[in-house]
């Protein structure tokens, strides 16, 4: 790792362990009702709003990963705190997980979203690795997959609960991530089979002939008509590149590596505003800007993709270019982490480079920790 990249990685690691993890455990964990708050105001105080299953699962993942990353704080306590809340407040009698509860823990929306199930699966995998004594987590995870059986589509993949967009690539991305995590710790053939199905679906259907990853589809996985079918998100170009590169290494698939590099190229070339130094939210399939606002999470995915692709670069020059982009990605991310109270973040950058004044969403923590974890992997 280059000196500049190492310096950037060390700064993020210090911020994580000395500021963010302690703050979000002290202020972001609800000791009265259980679970984690969705929001912390910029003065570090929790906001009592309804809580999504995906955010609770992400916070479990964050603190389980904190242990793997060497944080010496109470990460086991935090993981157990989150698990207890998710199992008692979100798990339905059929083994699936409702999408929303009120701040007091009572059910708010019993719907089952594929996106939520994917993050619960990811949290269960990381918690199972972190707390091996929790033998109940593996059968719970398999019950989720079994419960999704009626969502399976003839052309592969699953439908989503969204009435506007029931056929999406995004929840499959996180389901792939979760199944890869389970494949690392469980020898059940269920997991690699799902990994291969979703990765194959991405190559065959989600990615167009120019190599761009789309968001919204019809039931046969043809593009959804109209503008929505043309949306291409730079952050998802990077995130899918990271996943497909991992799959390529597992299966020896040069076509997946080629697709990953093309996704990354599209994201870096067309999806990064060099004036602001950040990846913006959306473009269209002709690579024109569709939504110039820039959320925090695409910055983390830019880092992850650059780091993993540097590891398989074909020439020293290519490796150096990926690493330079990773350094630029960290610089972009640091803009969001510059807050009056260290350990918080901004979420939405405006086209003029200013930030919307709003609370820090807990949902971003997962993205930040994933980027830090990728930066800490052996060179």
Give the CA-based shape: globular
Which ranges are low-confidence, i.e. pLDDT below 50, for 5 or more consecutive residues?
Answer: none
- Domain module count: 1
Q: Write down the CATH topology.
A: Glycosyltransferase
Termini Cα gap: 6 Å
Helix content: 40-55%
Mean pLDDT, as a whole number? 97
Instruction: Kindly provide the name of the CATH class.
Output: Mainly Alpha
Q: Helices and strands: which structural class? A: mainly alpha
Strand order of the largest sheet: 2-1-13
How many H/I helices? 12
Largest sheet: 3 strands, antiparallel
Could you tell me the radius of gyration in angstroms? 20 Å
Explain this structure to me?
- This protein is mainly alpha-helical.
- It has a single domain (3-376), classed as Glycosyltransferase.
- It contains twelve helices and 13 strands.
- It has helices at residues 3-26, 53-68, 75-89, 114-130, 137-147, 170-183, 190-206, 234-251, 254-270, 297-310, 316-337, 363-376, and strands spanning 39-40, 46-47, 51-52, 100-101, 107-109, 231-232, 272-273, 278-279, 282-284, 289-291, 294-295, 348-349, 360-361.
- The protein has a three-stranded antiparallel β-sheet.
- A hairpin with a 4-residue loop joins β9 and β10 (289-291).
- α1 runs antiparallel to α12.
- It is globular and about 50 Å long.
Features:
379 residues; mainly alpha; Glycosyltransferase; three-stranded antiparallel β-sheet; 12 helices; 13 strands; 53% helix; 8% strand; globular
């Amino acid at each position: 790792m280059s000196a500049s990249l190492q310096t950037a990685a060390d700064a993020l690691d210090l911020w994580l362990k000395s500021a963010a993890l302690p703050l979000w455990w002290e202020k972001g964990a609800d000791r009265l009702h259980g679970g984690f708050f969705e929001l912390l105001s910029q003065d570090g105080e929790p906001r009592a709003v309804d809580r999504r299953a995906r955010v609770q699962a992400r916070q479990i993942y964050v603190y389980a990963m904190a242990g793997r990353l060497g944080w010496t704080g109470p990460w086991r306590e935090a993981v157990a705190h989150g698990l207890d809340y998710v199992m008692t407040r979100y798990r339905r009698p059929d083994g699936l997980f409702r999408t929303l509860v009120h701040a007091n823990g009572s059910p708010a929306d019993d719907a089952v979203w594929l996106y939520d199930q994917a993050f619960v699966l990811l949290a269960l995998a990381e918690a199972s690795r972190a707390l091996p004594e929790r033998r109940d987590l593996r059968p719970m995870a398999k019950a989720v997959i079994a419960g999704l059986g009626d969502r399976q589509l003839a052309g592969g993949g699953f439908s989503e609960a969204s009435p506007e967009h029931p056929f999406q690539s995004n929840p499959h991305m996180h389901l792939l991530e979760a199944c890869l995590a389970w494949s690392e710790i469980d020898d059940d053939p269920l997991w690699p089979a799902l990994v291969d199905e979703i990765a194959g679906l991405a190559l065959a259907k989600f990615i167009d002939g120019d190599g761009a990853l789309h968001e919204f589809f019809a039931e046969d996985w043809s593009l959804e008509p109209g503008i929505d079918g043309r949306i291409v998100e730079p952050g998802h170009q990077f995130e899918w590149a990271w996943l497909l590169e991992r799959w390529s290494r597992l299966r020896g698939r040069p076509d997946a590596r080629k697709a990953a590099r093309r996704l990354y190229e599209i994201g870096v070339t067309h999806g990064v505003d060099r004036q602001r130094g950040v990846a913006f939210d959306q473009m269209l399939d002709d690579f024109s800007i569709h939504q110039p606002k820039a959320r925090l999470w695409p910055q983390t995915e830019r880092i992850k993709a650059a780091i993993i692709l540097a590891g398989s670069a074909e020439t020293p020059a290519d490796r150096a270019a990926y690493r330079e982009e990773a350094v630029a990605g960290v610089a972009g991310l640091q803009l969001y982490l510059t807050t009056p109270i260290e350990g918080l973040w901004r979420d939405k950058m405006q086209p003029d480079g200013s930030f919307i004044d709003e609370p820090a969403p807990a949902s971003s923590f997962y993205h930040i920790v994933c980027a830090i974890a990728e930066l800490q992997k052996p060179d």
